[in-house]
Amino acid sequence: MTQGGAAADNLNLKKYFLPKNLKKDFPASIVVFLVALPLCLGIALASGAPLFSGVLTGIIGGIVVGCLSGSQLSVAGPAAGLTVIVLNGITSLGAFETFLLALVIAGVFQIILGFVKAGTIANYFPSAVIEGMLAAIGIILIMKQFPHAVGYDADFEGDEGFKQIDADNTFSGIFRAVSKINFGAVIIAGVSLALMIYWPKFKKLAVVPAPLMVVLAGVGLSLLFANSGLALRDKQFVHIPVVGSMGEFFGLLKSPNFAEIGNKQVWITAFTIAVVASLETLLSLEAVDKIDPIKRISPTNRELLAQGAANIISGLLGGLPMTAVIVRSSANVNAGARTKMSAIIHGVFLLMALVLIPSLINYIPLSCLAAILLTTGFKLAKPALFKHMWHQGLNQFIPFAVTILAVVLTDLLIGVGIGMLIGIFYILRTNLRNPYFYHIVKNGDKKVIRIQLAEEVSFLNKAAIQVTLTSLPKETEVIIDGSNSRYIDPDVLEIIRNYKHNAYTKGIIVTLNEVKEKYDVPKLKELKLQSN
């Protein structure tokens, strides 16, 4: 490595320890820790795996993926979308140790996918579908956390599917919860919601994160209610495994059964985990980049490598499959995180909670944690988003709305798949001609790159334009000319705006020439005339 390269690496590392970043990352890590803890436990329970495995996966996801990933804001951990696969895998393979072998192989598959650059498929997810997925997750959080907020905890924490393991579905679960309200839980949830909304408005008090105040208030109220008619039941609290010492912690670790390496079912399970986990990771990564206030672009292939390495470690130690998880990641963004240190510190907090203070953690009521997730859900599905998508036109709003309905009524991957089909239908209604050409001219000693956009620039041109922009040399002047363009797809417009927003970090000056804020979709008659 050259001296210049070493200096650049050191400078890159220093940004994670800058006070201006740490003062945002540290409070955000507390929020993510509080959100992740019950989700790790709930997903492990639903997967038929030891509760310890769920927390261990969260620890590995936070620390290992956090260190290896190129994403600054995504958070990895056990995913609800994999619970059925894990449960069926453990059952069909006959032993958890055999399943761990499948997980190790799945991690190897993901590393291979990273090396062959399979992550580039994320460039082909339409923005309307990703926006719909985010809104759907917000709606699911609100509906799924309502029962926990009122003290009905039949469904596991972190469930995102319409059909629940308690034989209810999302809607019937809400109605059943209303009939089984625990007023102690309702009071705790109500106070917690008030703290989440109003605590940040007091600037002098807001140095203490609102979610931490929520937990303290929840514990205090649950102790106050302990000997009254408002007392919470045992299942209405967090239940983290109690580990008495580091020796006991290491004793809970499990190893894969490598003797089953020739078992065909192991390889089928491994391939299934690798494909589903990779797709969910790429979807989550694209969604997190969309809500990143700094508009950074995460390297998708590097993410697959990081996830693969972490899944290998998880399988070797007795954990569960992991992905980048949108619920934890969106909570991280909403809490104001700036760098990956938030995800790493949250992993450290999970480790400390498991080893040092498990008994104290078990005093936390689920209803106060539900309040944190309810506010996260509202921020993801806020009415302004629906209004914004409506103003983008029906070609954007319909795929957005269909994705929301499909995700809410099925699950994440099936719902996004349905949304993609609708999105592709609308894409094919627009002209799919060549997107652009560019040429380089000299302005003194400085290069000026002029990119002339075509008359019709569709979503299918998104990947090519993004690759071109990200590969432009540093310290140049770039002119993006839309003077000939009758239509530029909203996804491409977003890429151009994000590029302009972030280009200064590479010393690139970007000028937009006649690139409008919004383009109306050409009418079918106009497209036919143009094709003739």
From TrEMBL:
It is a multi-pass membrane protein. The chain crosses the membrane at residues 26-45, 51-68, 99-116, 123-143, 181-199, 206-225, 237-254, 266-285, 305-327, 348-378, 398-428. InterPro entries: SLC26A/SulP_dom, SLC26A/SulP_fam. GO terms for biological process: transmembrane transport. Residues 22-393 form the SLC26A/SulP transporter domain. One of its GO terms (cellular component) is membrane. It comes from the Bacteria. This is SulP family inorganic anion transporter. It is found in: Membrane. Keywords: Membrane, Transmembrane, Transmembrane helix. The keyword Transmembrane applies. It holds the Pfam family Sulfate_transp.
